[in-house]
Amino acid sequence: MARIVVKFGGTSVANVERIRNAARHIKREVEAGNEVAVVVSAMSGKTNELVGWVNEASKFHDAREYDAVVASGEQVTAGLMAIVLSEMGIQSRSFAGWQVPIHTDDSHGAARITDIDPTELDKRMSDGWVPVITGFQGISPHGRVTTLGRGGSDTSAVAVAAAVKADRCDIYTDVDGVYTTDPRIVPKAQRMTKISFEEMLEMASLGAKVLMIRSVEMAMAHKVRLTVRSSFDDPDAPQIAPDGTPGVPGTLVCDEDEIMEQQIVSGVTLAKAEAKITLRKVKDSPGVAAAIFGTLADKGIIVDMIVQNIADDGATTDITFTVPDSEYDKAVKALEDNGGRFEYARLSGSKGGAKVSVVGVGMRSHAGVASSMFKALADKGINIQLITTSEIKTSVLIDEEYAELAVRALHTYYGLDRQDA
């Protein structure tokens, strides 16, 4: 018998029929003798609808009332799921975040979980009940409902799993696992049996949209084993792991120690719509980088790749970095209107770049991964504009028109194509 937290995203609970299908997955786990808790998102599209209503009511709304409205989507889903489970003969009750309770700070709209009291959930699960918990929300120190921001339901599920000391947390979504790259770009992409927390964190931050970054960070911190699996698989089908043996379908996200053999490169990611900005001949003095990026941070602009080159005279430097295309004009204006915080000779930039990255914990113990990546791209005539590296990833900025060609070339070069494809 295992203790499991299962989470269903918006597409998996988009209507009552899909909620009933998700409930069959839960019933299978209960009948296998497992203790189960459920975390649900709002029905697909409902949160956007609620946000639209708030903005229609007032563009300058109180963030506390925003949360009160937007949090209602998950409450509907949780209630419906509990009703369907009860109809199937499974004892179930819905719990809003504040009823658990899931304590957060008071940053309405983007709250962070501070603590979960597992007492009531532990009791319910031990007694054979299935609690259905609203994802995406909690309660502030002042007793107000809060929401956790984008991807909050994944974060809720991981936090609940950590609180109740679950053996694993199953994230049910509309894909059947984590792939070596986007299968829409590379049909030969293969589903991974296992991936380490660190690799998943890098892939999530570099463009893979299977799991949200905050949920992976929390899972890694609390050692919560995650599985990514599809809610659209037949709930009554035999449970077969990716390696063909009986077990849990999908991809296991776990500690690196659980993975016996590490490929040098585990995956290739792509993020489009990247803009490049270069400040030429910036006066090189202590604090200048802090002033430049502080100016952008003050405007809420997220900076990604950063490269600095010191000029021959040693007195000036060129600084190049990337921002999302949508933030380009805002970033340029902020830098031009910097109020004398820093000096530079000229600003240049362009939109329409793409960031392609290779990720793998095996890169730690293998030299030459970056150089082989550059060669693979050069063989296809692809020019590299920027390069950044970390211990387990190398990223390059290229023209967006070559993005998919680059992904396919690297996927093949590192032997990630499925052998039977």
From TrEMBL:
Binding positions (substrate) = 47, 74
Kindly list the GO CC terms recorded for this protein: cytosol
Q: Which UniProt keywords apply?
A: Amino-acid biosynthesis, ATP-binding, Kinase, Lysine biosynthesis, Nucleotide-binding, Transferase
Q: Name one GO biological process term.
A: lysine biosynthetic process via diaminopimelate
Entries under Pfam families matching the protein: AA_kinase, ACT_9
Q: GO: which molecular function terms?
A: aspartate kinase activity; ATP binding
Q: Which CDD domains match?
A: AAK_AKii-LysC-BS, ACT_AKii-LysC-BS-like_1, ACT_AKii-LysC-BS-like_2
Q: What is its EC number?
A: 2.7.2.4
Matching InterPro entries, A to Z?
Answer: AceGlu_kinase-like_sf, ACT-like_dom_sf, ACT_Aspartokinase, ACT_dom, AKii-LysC-BS, Asp/Glu/Uridylate_kinase, Asp_kin_monofn, Asp_kinase
Domain ACT residue range list: 277-350, 358-421
Identify the PANTHER family for this entry.
Answer: ASPARTATE KINASE (PTHR21499), ASPARTOKINASE (PTHR21499:SF3)
Q: Which family does it belong to?
A: Belongs to the aspartokinase family.
Name of protein: Aspartokinase
This chain's source organism reads: Devosia marina
